[in-house]
């Protein structure tokens, strides 16, 4: 059977890692989700590169289109390299009425990011130096704490513009130290 | 699974086999239920919501293509409620993408268009979405125009279930859903595509068409694709 691997293969040690992860999950129904989740977690930039997806498809026998469909359906999976720090701003109704749009605009301005013109409901922006990723979330389920912002997987409630800017600024200086 | 059951479709008693769906029974008995995502020979997904029917004793509407028949089932295939519901479903399909019949290769042979005509749709009550979409002309023989795609997934199932190549799938979710070949590769560069063209023949609209046809010229051979499944079952 041909693998259908037309383009570049992942590095050899990455191939080894992928093979091991696939081996752990082999034969389980819905194994693809677990495989992709583990692979993204092991990736230094927390994303699934195209060559990885292609290799997973070839190794598991799952059609490439199906691997891609799964990877794009779930908001959990990233197809682009993520920043070291992640700021997730809730754009749900409760947070919107409590001014989450202003928070998003302010942080975008602070990091010098611009929204893509297509206006997709899910927004993910990463700074060119890959230090920060800003993303929007539909709802954290913490509406009583609106507006909610998640900074590096820690939930912050009742977020004020100034407090958020200070926090992002602190993270920015962290590595400089 | 050859247990015989009797059901009623619009009052008429019809003999059916347990395990068949309402839509299958209706079609074999010349009872018309509109459907777009259903195609004979493919698995049913129940995504277009046009085959919704009323079943007595059930408060909500049920999709005929995925509801199996049971002894004593009584189905109503047309009513004012169903007509309104189907109209709404069709109008939302028109509003979602850029369907411009006047310049479409499939105009006059389009299932979406003819269903709209059947339901007396003269205008769309919902604001158009006007998405910016691409046209993939990279394949030497076929074209894919996302503007005309209704995401019925008939091409996806035809390629996966009949051809066995599974070149297509639906990526993304909700309003951002798009038909993709492989890892969003251009169709012409898809390594698994056999260029058989069955997806094109299965497409109900002008989203997939053969190259070289002008407006209103593309007719599809859907029955030929459906026939492949029945031929194989007979073997």
What does this entry look like structurally?
The complex is a heterodimer of chains A (177) and B (235). With 177 residues, chain A is α+β, with helices and mostly antiparallel strands. Chain A folds into 2 domains: 12-73; 85-176, Glutaredoxin (3-Layer(aba) Sandwich). Chain A is built from 7 helices and 5 strands. Chain A has helices at residues 12-25, 31-42, 50-60, 64-73, 93-97, 100-111, 161-176; strands at 85-90, 124-126, 132-137, 149-151, 154-156. Chain A has a 5-stranded mixed β-sheet with strand order 2-3-1-4-5, with helices on one face. The longest helix of chain A is centred in the C-terminal third of the chain and has 16 residues, at 161-176. Chain A is elongated, with a radius of gyration of 19 Å. With 235 residues, chain B is α+β, with helices and mostly antiparallel strands. Chain B folds into 2 domains: 4-78, Ubiquitin-like (UB roll); 98-234, Alpha-Beta Plaits. Helix content of chain B is 26%, strand content 16%. Chain B has 6 helices and 10 strands. In chain B, the strands form 3 sheets. Chain B has a 5-stranded mixed β-sheet, sandwiched between helices. In chain B, a hairpin with a 2-residue loop joins strand 1 (4-9) and strand 2 (12-17). The radius of gyration of chain B is 18 Å and the shape is globular. Chains A and B meet through helix 3 and helix 4 of A and strand 8 of B.
Strand order across the biggest sheet of chain B? Answer: 2-1-5-3-4
- Return the CATH architecture of the largest domain in chain B: 2-Layer Sandwich
Strand order in the largest sheet of chain A: 2-3-1-4-5
Strand coverage percent of chain B = 15-25%
């Amino acid at each position: 059977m041909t693998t259908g691997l037309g383009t570049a293969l992942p590095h050899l040690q990455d191939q080894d890692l992928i093979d091991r992860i696939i081996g752990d999950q082999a034969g389980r129904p819905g194994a693809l989700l677990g495989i992709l989740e583990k692979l993204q977690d092991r990736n230094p930039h927390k994303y699934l590169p195209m060559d990885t997806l292609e290799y997973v498809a070839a190794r598991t026998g799952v059609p490439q289109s199906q691997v891609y469909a799964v990877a794009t359906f779930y908001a959990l999976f990233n197809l682009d390299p993520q920043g070291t720090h992640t700021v997730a701003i809730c754009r749900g109704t409760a947070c919107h009425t409590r001014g989450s749009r202003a928070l998003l605009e302010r942080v975008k301005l602070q990091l010098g990011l611009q929204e893509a013109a297509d206006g997709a409901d899910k927004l993910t922006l990463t700074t060119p130096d890959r230090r920060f990723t800003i993303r929007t979330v539909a709802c954290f389920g913490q509406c009583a704490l609106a507006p909610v912002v998640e900074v590096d997987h820690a939930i912050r409630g009742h977020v004020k513009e100034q407090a958020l800017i200070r926090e992002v600024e602190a993270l920015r200086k962290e590595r400089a130290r | 699974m050859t247990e015989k059951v009797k059901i009623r479709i619009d009052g008429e008693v019809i003999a059916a086999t347990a395990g068949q769906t309402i839509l299958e029974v209706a079609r074999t008995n010349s009872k018309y239920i509109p459907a777009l995502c259903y195609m004979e020979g493919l698995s049913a997904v129940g995504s277009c919501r046009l085959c919704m029917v009323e079943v007595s004793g059930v408060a909500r509407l049920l999709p005929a293509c995925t509801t199996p028949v049971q002894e004593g089932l009584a189905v109503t295939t047309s009513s004012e409620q169903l007509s309104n519901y189907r109209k709404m479903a069709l109008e939302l399909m028109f509003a979602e993408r850029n369907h411009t019949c006047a310049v479409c290769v499939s105009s006059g042979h389009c299932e979406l268009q003819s269903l709209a005509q059947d339901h007396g749709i003269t205008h769309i009550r919902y604001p158009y979405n006007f998405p910016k979409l691409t046209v993939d002309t990279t394949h030497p023989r076929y074209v894919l125009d996302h503007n005309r795609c209704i995401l019925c997934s008939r091409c996806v199932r035809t390629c996966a279930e009949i051809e066995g190549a599974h070149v297509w799938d639906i990526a993304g979710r909700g309003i951002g859903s798009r038909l993709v070949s492989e890892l969003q590769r251009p169709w012409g560069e898809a390594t698994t595509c056999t260029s058989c063209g069955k997806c094109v023949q299965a497409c109900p609209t002008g989203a997939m068409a053969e190259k070289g046809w002008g407006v209103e010229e593309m007719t599809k051979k859907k029955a030929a694709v459906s026939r492949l499944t029945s031929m194989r079952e007979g073997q």
